[in-house]
C-alpha cells in the first residue's frame, strides 16, 4: 500500500452510501481539487486533477466530514491500493486503483493547520 499527501481544495463531501449484497457496508467520498503544477515563473505546467477519496464504515464517524469543508484548503493523507481483475467480456487483465482518505488537515487562511479528526463543524 502506498501513501501520498495531496494538497488541494475540497469541492464536495458526498453523502454516505451503502454497498454490498446486504447493503451493510458504508462509504463516503470527498472530491478534492488539486491544482496543476506551476513552475518558478508562474507558468502552468501540469493539468488540474480531481480525486475521489473514500472513507469506509467506522472511519466515517471518526472523521465526521460534512459540507462545511466545501471550498476549504486541505492537506489529505491518502492510502492507495491496487487490485487486479479479470474482464468478464474477454478474460483479459485489468487493474483498479482506490484512494482511501486517512487524515485531512484543514489549512486556515492564516497558514495554520488543524487535523480533522475532530468533527468538521467544530471551531
Condensed summary:
This protein is mainly β. The protein is built from one helix and seven strands; from the N terminus they run E-E-E-E-H-E-E-E. Helices cover 5% and strands 53% of the residues.
Q: Could you name the key traits of this structure?
A:
123 residues, mainly beta, OB fold (Dihydrolipoamide Acetyltransferase, E2P), 7-stranded antiparallel sheet, 7 strands, flat, disordered C terminus
Description:
This protein is mainly beta and 123 residues long. The protein has a single domain, classed as Beta Barrel (OB fold (Dihydrolipoamide Acetyltransferase, E2P)). Helices cover 5% and strands 53% of the residues. Strands 1, 2, 3, 4, 5, 6 and 7 form a seven-stranded antiparallel beta sheet that branches. A hairpin with a 5-residue loop joins strand 6 and strand 7. The longest helix is centred in the middle third of the chain and has 6 residues, at 58-63. Mean pLDDT is 90; it is low at 118-123.
Question: How do the helices and strands line up, and which of them pair or pack?
Answer:
Elements: E1 2-13, E2 17-19, E3 25-34, E4 49-56, H1 58-63, E5 73-86, E6 93-107, E7 113-115
Amino acid at each position: 500500500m502506498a501513501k501520498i499527501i495531496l494538497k488541494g481544495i475540497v469541492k464536495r463531501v458526498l453523502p454516505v452510501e451503502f454497498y454490498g449484497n446486504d447493503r451493510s457496508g458504508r462509504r463516503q467520498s470527498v472530491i478534492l481539487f488539486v491544482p496543476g503544477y506551476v513552475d518558478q515563473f508562474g507558468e502552468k505546467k501540469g493539468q488540474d486533477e480531481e480525486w475521489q477519496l473514500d472513507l469506509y464504515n467506522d472511519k466515517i464517524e471518526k472523521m465526521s466530514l460534512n459540507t462545511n469543508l466545501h471550498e476549504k484548503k486541505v492537506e489529505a493523507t491518502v492510502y492507495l491500493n491496487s487490485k487486479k481483475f479479470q474482464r468478464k467480456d474477454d478474460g483479459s487483465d485489468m487493474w483498479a486503483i482506490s484512494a482511501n482518505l486517512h487524515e485531512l488537515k484543514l489549512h486556515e487562511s492564516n497558514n495554520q493547520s488543524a487535523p480533522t479528526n475532530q468533527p468538521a463543524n467544530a471551531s
